[in-house]
């Protein structure tokens, strides 16, 4: 493992200076704890972030470190490159955590990320690279190109940053979840290309380690963005107002987003019960998915704000690019029906009850990909039937289709 002595010294020093870790667990499930962790880090709320980390750690000691790797790359990145490297060191070294104390290292890393200057450029760039229609031709080129041609595009500074990000993605060989379109990548070759451009050994080796732990496209873009920030001249800091959020049972409402069961239900109810909001969607969303638009609105209103962020030459442009991709995603009606959870539940149950088990099992795989938390036992929390026998019939069908109890 290649981390220099300065990184070890910095994290040791922070362990000594970090003070008492707030380790009182939150009264919530792992999905809500994960949401609280990331959003409180964005907002700079150290105490709440440490409590959420403690809660998630109790559920899964490995998952918390994978989650922190993603948060460090997605929300901090080049905003504080030292914080990024320290997080990757802690996540990669179980011996280091054992020597210094797991709880102490966890608390110090979470504090470090919460207090760091943020930069979400990697997330915006990764979303655009994988889904923006303006980059589809570049994706097709990279899909057919050799690794050498992908790296050639990556290292061509005359090309726009977004196109070079596509090349970095395909050169890495990482596939987004539930996809298998990228073949022939090599993380070590990508790291070598970054080093040839001026990224240091520690950053590039950290990228390789992080990508193996959390196979996300945004992880392999950190060196590319670092190089671009360095080329772009002086960078500053920007502080934006953070919206206040009420709490229920100690959990801030911003935690309940589309990745939580409660958040999904709340968004669906918002569309169904709030007429002014629904009329706004009808007025401005000529086609596409009201649910997706509501999910995006909830994210940008409550989930995305950061306390202090890096202001560099391309930060605003990348944010606009990422926001545009999100809006295009909501406006695409073709993506709504295949992933509409209520329809998939009905399809799975109906096919199972009719004896078409192959079709039922295929539908239930999609259901569990969209919502891994769904069980027969909590189905009543998601659907509302006037007659108990209707719920019982749906439960029977989904049970036959393979939904766990």
Account of the protein in words:
There is one protein chain. The chain has helices spanning 5-17, 30-43, 46-59, 61-76, 81-92, 94-100, 102-115, 121-131, 136-144, 147-154, 161-172, 187-197, 201-213, 222-231, 261-273, 275-284, 290-303, 315-331, 341-353, 357-370, 388-401; strands at 236-238, 247-248, 251-252, 309-311. With 405 residues, the protein is mainly α. The strands form 2 sheets. Strands 1-4 form a two-stranded antiparallel ribbon.
Overall form: globular
Helix content: 55-70%
The major pleated sheet works out as: 2 strands, antiparallel
What structural category do the secondary elements indicate?
Answer: mainly alpha
Q: What's the order of the H and E elements?
A: HHHHHHHHHHHHHHEEEHHHEHHHH
Oligomer category: single chain
How large is the count of helical segments? 21
The count of DSSP E runs of length 2 or more, i.e. the number of strands, is: 4
Determine the strand fraction and express it as a percent band. Answer: under 5%
Low-confidence region ranges: 333-339
Number of domains: 4
Average pLDDT level: 86
